[in-house]
Amino acid sequence: MLEMQNKEETSSKHILIVDDDDSVIEFLKMYISNEGFNVEIAYDGVNALEKIKIKKPDLIILDAMLPRKSGYELVKSLQISFELKKIPIVVITGHTRDQEFKRMFLFESNVKEFLLKPVQPDILVMHIHKLLNTKPKYEKIAEEKSSEFKKNFEG
Q: CA quadruple 78, 79, 84, 87: dihedral positive or negative?
């Protein structure tokens, strides 16, 4: 019963991936969807803001460098709205050497993580589960197996 509630909780979570690179989007979408999350995508900051206003996601994975509206501009735009500024954001970027760039993002209250590309999908998924308070797929499977074992052992 408890396992089912956790599964429903995960499948009820909506994540918006914002990146201008098709291969990054498809890779992240596949990996995150496989965990049971609902995934939507946007290819630039303007499109992302439109989607966020229509259907408020539970979490945003945001490339720092985007066309039409940068990742930082999008972060600042979300802070204008009381509801939208509560959405946790995980920033991903290829800017590896610029510590000031990283600090600029991390000083923003809605930015919860800052990860470097290429993103390790297991690390990203771990952060998503932590931020959304959901259970990773491997834990659900382990619980199901444990429950099955106990049933067989006891009965």
A: positive
Domains of the chain: 2-154 (3.40.50.2300)
Sign for the pseudo-dihedral over CA of 17, 19, 20, 26: negative
**Mean pLDDT value across residues 69-84:** 94
- Give the Cα separation of 50 and 84 in Å (integer): 12
Transcribe 20-78 into DSSP letters.
S-HHHHHHHHHHHHHTT-EEEEESSHHHHHHHHHHS--SEEEEESS-SSS-HHHHHHHH
Which pTM value belongs to this model? 0.85
Mean pLDDT of all residues belonging to the chain: 87
